[in-house]
Amino acid sequence: MPETSTPTRRAPELSLTLASPAPAPVRDRPISPPMDPVHRGDVPCSTTVRPSHRSSSFDEPVPLPAPRGPVSRALIDLLSGDAEAIVDLRLLRWTGDPTKATTDDDLQLALWLTYEQHYRGLAGVDERWEWHPELVWARRSWEQHLLDGLRGETDEHASRDGQDPTSGRARVQAVLNELASADDEPSLSKFLMREATSRQFGEFLIHRSLYHLKEADPHTWAIPRLSGSVKAAMVTIQADEYGGGAMPAMHAQLFRTLLMDWDLHDTYGHYLDHVPGVTLLATNVISLFGLHRRWRGALVGHLAMFEMTSSVPNGRYARGHRRLGGGEEAALFFDEHVVADSVHDQIALHDLAGGLADHEPQLVDDIIFGARCAAYADAAFAGHVFDRWGKGASSLRRPVDGSSEVAS
Amino acid sequence: MNPEPEAAYEYEVDEEPRPGLGVSITVCPDGPLLVRGPVELVSADGETVEHPRRVVALCRCGRSRLKPLCDGSHRLSRFRDPATGDQITHVLNRARPAPTE
To answer: How far is B13 from chain A (nearest CA, A)?
Structure first.
């Protein structure tokens, strides 16, 4: 294990696993010690500081980030104040370029913040804002922009689906299989496997931390909206995501071990200020589908695509991680996903998405839309990362080395 | 592990299996064999393999790097076997390939 400055909030059970006498890794990491100026003041320097509370096994509400435009600025101002206050809805109207809604920093951050109130919450924010009617109204308009954007990004493909005479199940499975087998080039997973530097691999983990530290949570919203065998399929998948109820085996917890192995912060939401809108999109899409029963078909389609495109890339990430000297305990996050998701792939395709198409055939288009959105969000993220790395730049909005450069 | 699987197995011996608690193998189209339920996995020399998984996907395409488990490689190798009910029934009862369309 590297000896550089690391967060000292490790849970005891994780410290034990990391204490294995691994040989000094041969790599040019760490990408940087977690000393970025934004959060330096928050980093406790001793385990004696509220050790049980600061342990990484229980998340705390996310501190409000820096605004990224007029809407997120107005929102953050609101959230910092009294939930009884009069809300000026004009300030919450997003007037950006509708064709760039899916990756717009301001819009995606505003959505992310309102959604986060349904997960771990926001530090110092009155919890009544979660269901504040005017804020819900404002979010609805942002969601419409997001949905319009997603429609725009996925429509050109949708026309190829055709309306063949086969059953809804067959149509769902044909489209999902086609999407899942695309393995587009350039492939981010192949790049991470073969070529990525340690800094690039670390950036990848930073982006992914916004999802994996609450891995599975956004899809769990589907459970109360399903029933019968479709619900059972959903629970089979989610049970694995949550480690079958064993905390150290929860996928979010495995990701913590991975982050710590890479000398990265494992605090929930820590890298919010660093990641661009396209990264927030990935979780916002699932939250959007998850928080509206009306989008349960899309939520199921999204999860199915997630599971169907997970085993192979995770196998590649694991090889990249090991190539760069990553630890074996930490590699379990990737290794476990290869095995678990090869099972989930089939359950999601046949029992979950196929089952829902059988029982609610009116949702077939939504299931396919959700799957396309998952594929789009993944491709948009990869496109962003390749674009930045191709220019020799950081893929982060604010690199973790503390430089104030903002790639907008 | 919780004792549920063993209890379910005993139950199955003399009565109808409880739904969802029996052993089943799903032949996945173009994919692996999905084995669910309290099944004992043994090596050819008779050793029982202890593992924590309630459902396992066994490789059917031959390309997995994790055999006997599936690692998703069938998607890359474009493994094709439709595994329809008709096809499986035909093969199991007639011991010959199902007619192709």
So the answer is: 25
Containing structural domain, residue B63: 22-94
In this structure, are A135 and A185 located in the same domain? no
Round the average pLDDT of chain A to a whole number and report it: 87
The string over B19-53, giving b where at least 16 C-beta atoms fall within 10 Å of a residue's C-beta and e elsewhere, is eebbeeebbbbbbbbbbbbbbeeeeeeeeeeeeee
pTM of the model: 0.84
Interface residue of B49, B71, B78, B80 to substitute, partner A, most A CBs within 10 Å = B71
A18-27 mean pLDDT: 42
Strand B33-36 and strand B55-58: the pairing is antiparallel
Q: Are residues A381 and A361 in the same domain?
A: yes
Are A257 and A366 in a shared domain?
yes
* CATH at B36: 3.40.5.90
Q: Domain range spanning residue A369?
A: 166-390
- The ipTM value here is 0.81
Q: At which residue do the structure tokens 């920093």 appear?
A: A105
Q: How far is A91 from chain B (nearest CA, A)?
A: 48
Contact B78 A347 (CB under 8 A): no
Q: What is the pLDDT of residues A202-234, one digit of tens each?
A: 999 999 999 999 999 999 999 999 999 999 999
Query: What Å distances lie between residue A179 and A78, A175, A310, B80, B83, CA to CA?
Result: 41, 6, 12, 16, 21
Q: Are residues A142 and A264 in the same domain?
A: no
Residues 81-100 of B with CB under 8 A from A: none
Among candidate residues A128, A154, A180, the one where a domain is terminated: A154
**Residues sharing a CB contact under 8 Å with residue A221, sequence separation 6 or more, in sequence order:** A290, A291, A299
